[in-house]
Write a structure and sequence with these properties.
Blueprint: H1 2-27, H2 35-57, E1 63-65, H3 67-85, H4 95-105, H5 108-111, E2 116-118, H6 120-155, H7 160-164, H8 168-193, H9 206-229, H10 234-249, H11 252-260
C-alpha cells in the first residue's frame, strides 16, 4: 500500500511540474526551451504512474477494476500517447490539457478502495474497451482544439493559448494518428466482445452493439475519406466529434433506453 501511494504521489507531483513549465511558457514568463525538461518530467511521471496503477489493477487471478482505476488508466494512456507524438512533432504544449488531469486521476485509486474482480479474459476486454474510448476521447478533444484553432486562425484572432499550440498541420496530423490508433483499439474491443455475448436481446446489448458498430463505421468512413479524398479541416473535426458522440451514446444512451423500458 505504501509503495502504490508514494508512487502515485510522485507521479502527480511530476505531472504538476511539467504542467507548470508549460503554463509559464504560455504566459510568456520564460523564453527558454522547455521541451527537453517537459518530456523528461512527463516520461518519468508516466512510468511511475504505470507502476502505481499496476499495483492496484492486477490481482492474483483477476483484474481489480473500479472507477478510480478506469479514470487513472484513461489519463495514463493520454500521457503515453502524447509522449509518442512528441517523438517527431513538437506537441509537448498539448500537455497543458493532459498533465493536470493526470495529476488528479493518478491519485483516485488511493481513495477508491472498493473494486470488482474480473476474470482476466473479461478484464482484458474491458481494458481494451476503455483504451478505445479514452483514445477516441483524446482524439475528440484534439478535433475540438484543431477546429477552434483553425477558426481563430482564419479570423486572425488567435489567443495566447492558441498561439502556443502546435501549427495547424501538426495538429491535423496528430488528430489523424489518434483516430487511427483508436480505430484499431475499437476494432479489437468489438471483436473481443463477441466472445462474451450469448444473446444480444437477453443481455440487453443490442442498443450498445448497434451504436458502437455505427460509430466504428463513421470512423472508418472518415479515415477512408481522408486518405482517399483528402478530407481535412472542419470535415475531419466533425466526423471525429460525431463518431465519438455515437460511441458515448452506446454506453450512456443504452442505460437510459433500458431504464425507460423497465430493465
Amino acid at each position: 500500500m505504501f509503495i502504490s501511494v508514494s508512487s502515485a504521489l510522485l507521479a502527480s507531483l511530476l505531472y504538476l511540474l511539467a504542467s507548470r513549465l508549460i503554463w509559464q511558457k504560455i504566459q510568456g514568463s520564460t523564453d527558454s526551451n522547455i521541451r527537453p525538461n517537459v518530456i523528461k518530467l512527463a516520461l518519468i511521471a508516466t512510468l511511475v504512474h504505470a507502476f502505481a496503477l499496476s499495483i492496484t489493477l492486477w490481482g492474483d487471478q483477476a483484474i481489480h477494476f473500479n472507477m478510480g482505476n478506469g479514470l487513472s488508466l484513461v489519463a495514463l494512456l493520454g500521457s503515453a500517447i502524447l509522449l509518442v507524438t512528441c517523438i517527431n512533432k513538437n506537441t509537448e504544449m498539448l500537455g497543458i490539457f493532459v498533465y493536470p488531469l493526470a495529476a488528479l486521476t493518478v491519485l483516485l485509486p488511493i481513495f477508491m478502495n472498493n473494486f470488482t474482480p474480473l476474470p482476466f479474459t473479461l478484464g482484458i476486454h474491458v481494458l481494451i474497451s476503455i483504451a478505445a474510448y479514452s483514445i477516441m476521447g483524446i482524439a475528440t478533444a484534439q478535433a475540438i482544439l484543431y477546429g477552434r484553432q483553425e477558426l481563430l486562425f482564419r479570423k486572425k484572432k488567435l489567443s495566447r493559448l492558441m498561439k502556443a499550440l502546435p501549427p495547424l498541420q501538426v495538429m491535423e496530423t496528430t488528430l489523424i494518428q489518434l483516430v487511427i490508433i483508436g480505430f484499431i483499439f475499437l476494432s479489437f474491443a468489438l471483436l473481443s466482445g463477441v466472445f462474451f455475448i450469448e444473446d444480444l436481446f437477453a443481455q440487453h446489448l443490442i442498443h450498445k452493439t448497434f451504436l458502437a458498430i455505427l460509430s466504428w463505421l463513421v470512423y472508418g468512413a472518415f479515415l477512408f475519406g481522408h486518405f482517399k479524398y483528402g478530407w481535412r479541416g472542419k470535415k475531419a473535426a466533425r466526423y471525429t466529434i460525431w463518431a465519438y458522440v455515437l460511441l458515448v451514446l452506446s454506453f450512456i444512451g443504452t442505460s437510459i433506453i433500458l431504464s425507460s423500458l423497465g430493465y
